[in-house]
Design brief:
Blueprint lengths: L1 H11 L17 H21 L14 H7 L16 H11 L8 E2 L8 H13 L10 H18 L7 E4 L2 H16 L3 H4 L6 E6 L5 H8 L7 E4 L9 H13 L3 E8 L11 H11 L2 E6 L23 E5 L11 E5 L7 H6 L33 H35 L5 E3 L10 E3 L12 H21 L3 E2 L16
Parallel strand pairs: 1-11, 3-4, 3-5, 5-6, 6-7
Antiparallel strand pairs: 2-8, 7-8, 9-10
Helix pairs in contact: 5-13, 6-13, 7-9, 10-11
């Protein structure tokens, strides 16, 4: 093969490629590469600096799907030749122009935002090296970096002993791995024989993320296997309600296998009480998973980590560094308690593909082959941006970032309370989510107990948000509950 490849190169000169390669795949000269990447760098810098110009730069230049299709030639036509590199800049310019500026200070639409330059550099190098972290053989540096990032995150949970964990393509995967490990513990032969006739049940709060019910249907037990536990007036799971649900299912012949506690729910920002939930799970021998995708960042702060007291008792934890910590998309992990050993993910997910996982006899690289811990084959490596960002900012940098976010929350609360007629705060936030209503002047004299008020508020809120979006002024998350009685929750 090497001889054939060398002969092919000789036939085609310095820019030669094997005969099956098209001309557009040929090697670029140093001058061409320098020109391409210099132009790309300049455009990227201009874009990033534009995010800070609140006066002249909108969050989005919004177009409807129909309008966007008219200004952007998206068709990938059949049988045509490519444009070559000379045509890429018009596509890049339009892509950046009409994309949402998630690094803009007024992008407040999701649980992630901002620009972390260190992790952005990591993303660039990730693309340049184009590695896949399924084996040490093809990703030696990144495999070791991933293990170190996992070790660091586990230590922040409170687990200093060796254990398991892996980076995942998003929090949904991290939660799903928690469910798979829980089922493996409850039904050890499930990998070969399936769920069988056992009626498995999972438990989560009514305000938990939808990935839990998605997990049950992917695992073949159906969404009806999820029990949605009642929450208190601030959105936290009620432990006594969890106990009652488990007892009821046991009496009916079900096998409770998984409890999900959430640390900072998506909408209300509630932190479920982990200690009493852990007591119940220990009593019934049920796997306890903590979905801290959004709230896990509080572990970086000695002041706010109390919100997750008891997390060290959980069997597994989901944590997304691209959310509160602020790394670039996406940087998620599932972390496993040391009591389950260092191979629980592999025992749960491995298919032992010997064509891929074949460590040499002279040096065992098996502990560093991370692919068999996951459901993926090819694994886009997210370790470098996490590791590099941590090297740049350190623990103290992440601490400052999290605590600044809480300072901003407190400042925002003060501004809302300065105008009690115009802004109604639902309750004192536990985390960063600040839930409030804006009351248009024409509705401020209406009784808060009047259901018609809430209907009108729902319509007005959706209209205001849409106008802000169309004008590019701001993107903010809206969750409208029109007919909920809110008066007992208002903070005067």
């Amino acid at each position: 093969f090497i001889v054939w490849l060398g002969t092919t190169m000789e036939e085609h000169g310095d820019n030669g490629q094997p005969l099956f390669c098209h001309e557009t795949y040929r090697r670029r000269t140093p001058e061409e590469l320098h020109q391409i990447f210099t132009e790309l760098a300049e455009r990227s810098i201009t874009y990033l600096l534009g995010n800070e110009d609140r006066t002249h730069t909108p969050v989005i230049e919004f177009l409807t799907p129909k309008e966007l299709l008219e200004v952007f030639d998206l068709e990938l036509a059949k049988g045509t030749d490519g444009d070559g590199f000379h045509g890429i800049w018009q596509h890049i310019e339009k892509c950046m122009k009409y994309s949402v500026r998630t690094g803009h200070p007024r992008f407040l639409n999701q649980l992630w935002a901002g620009t972390d330059v260190a992790s952005m550099i990591g993303e660039i190098i990730t693309t340049v090296t184009n590695a896949s972290t399924y084996t040490y053989e093809v990703a030696p540096v990144y495999s070791l970096m991933e293990l170190e990032v996992i070790r660091k995150m586990r230590s922040m949970v409170g687990w200093e002993e060796p254990g398991d964990g892996v980076l995942c393509p998003g929090g949904a995967y991290s939660n799903f791995y928690g469910m798979l490990m829980a089922r493996q513990k409850a039904v050890p032969d499930v990998r070969k024989k399936g769920n069988g006739t056992v009626s498995l049940t999972a438990y989560t709060s009514k305000h938990a993320h939808y990935t839990i019910k998605r997990g049950t249907f992917l695992m073949g037990m159906g969404m009806d296997a999820v029990r949605y536990v009642e929450v208190d007036s601030e959105g936290r799971m009620i432990p006594e309600a969890l106990e009652r649900a488990i007892q009821t299912d046991k009496k009916n012949g079900c096998l409770p296998f998984f409890v999900n506690a959430t640390s900072q729910t998506t909408v209300l920002g509630a932190f479920d009480p982990l200690h009493p939930i852990a007591d119940i799970c220990a009593k019934h021998d049920i796997w306890l998973h903590c979905d801290a995708a959004w709230g896990g960042g509080v572990l970086a702060s000695p002041t706010y980590c109390r919100l997750m007291d008891g997390v060290e008792r959980c069997d597994s934890v989901c944590w997304c560094l691209h959310k509160m910590i602020g790394l670039q998309q996406q940087a998620s992990a599932v972390l496993v308690h040391p009591r389950h050993g260092s191979n629980v993910l592999k025992n749960c997910n491995a298919s032992n593909a010997d064509y891929l996982f074949h460590a040499p006899e002279d040096h065992d690289e098996t502990p560093y082959d991370l692919g068999d811990k996951t459901l993926n084959c090819g694994r886009r490596q997210d370790a470098f941006k996490c590791w590099l960002s941590w090297k740049v900012h350190g623990d103290l940098g992440y601490k400052a970032r999290v605590e600044r976010a809480f300072e901003n929350r407190d400042y925002f609360l003060k501004q809302l309370r300065r105008h009690p007629d115009a802004f109604w705060l639902l309750w004192q936030p536990q985390g960063l989510n600040t839930c409030f209503w804006y009351i248009p002047p024409r509705l401020r004299t209406m009784d808060r107990e009047d259901r018609d008020l809430w209907k009108k508020l729902g319509v007005a809120t959706a209209q205001i948000r849409r106008k802000m979006q169309l004008r590019g002024k701001c993107l903010v998350c809206v969750y409208v509950q029109m007919y909920v009685q809110m008066s007992d929750r208002m903070i005067q």
